[in-house]
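Milestone 3.1: sequence recovery, worked example.
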C-alpha cells in the first residue's frame, strides 16, 4: 500500500459518501469485487443517514457557527455526522464532563442543527402534542 498524502484529516459522512459514489461510478471494476461489496454496503448505510440531505455549504456554515462553543474537532465531526436533536443527544456527543454545556447552549446547538440541516426530520411530536390531538379527536 502506498501513502499518497501523509497529512491527517477528518472526513464527514457526506465526503465519504461522495468519494464512494465516485469510486462506484469508475469504469475500472475488474479485480475489485471486494471493493465493490464494501462500497455498496457503505453507500447503503450512508444513504439512510442524515448526510443524504446535507450539503458542503451547510456543513461549512454549521461548523463555523459551532466554533463559538468550546468543542473539539472530533466532537464537531460527530455533530455533523449525527446531528443532535435533543439536549441528551448533544451531551452524549460531547466528551467534556468537567464543563458541560448549559441548557441554553444545548438549545442553541439544536437550533443551529435545524437551521443548517433543514432536511433533518424533527422526529415524533411531543407527548403533550399527541395527547392534545388525541383528546380533540375524541371530543
Amino acid at each position: 500500500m502506498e501513502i499518497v498524502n501523509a497529512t491527517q484529516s477528518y472526513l464527514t459522512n457526506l465526503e465519504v459518501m461522495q468519494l464512494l459514489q465516485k469510486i462506484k461510478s469508475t469504469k475500472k471494476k475488474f479485480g475489485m469485487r471486494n471493493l465493490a461489496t464494501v462500497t455498496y454496503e457503505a453507500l447503503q448505510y450512508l444513504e439512510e443517514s442524515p448526510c443524504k440531505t446535507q450539503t458542503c455549504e451547510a456543513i461549512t456554515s454549521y461548523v463555523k457557527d459551532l466554533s463559538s462553543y468550546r468543542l473539539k474537532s472530533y466532537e464537531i465531526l460527530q455533530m455533523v455526522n449525527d446531528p443532535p436533536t435533543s439536549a441528551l443527544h448533544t451531551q452524549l456527543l460531547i466528551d467534556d464532563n468537567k464543563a458541560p454545556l448549559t441548557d441554553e447552549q444545548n438549545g442553541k446547538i439544536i437550533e443551529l442543527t435545524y437551521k443548517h440541516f433543514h432536511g433533518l426530520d424533527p422526529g415524533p411530536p411531543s407527548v403533550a402534542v399527541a395527547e392534545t390531538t388525541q383528546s380533540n379527536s375524541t371530543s
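Confidence is low (pLDDT under 50) at residues 124-139. The chain is about 60% helix and 0% strand.
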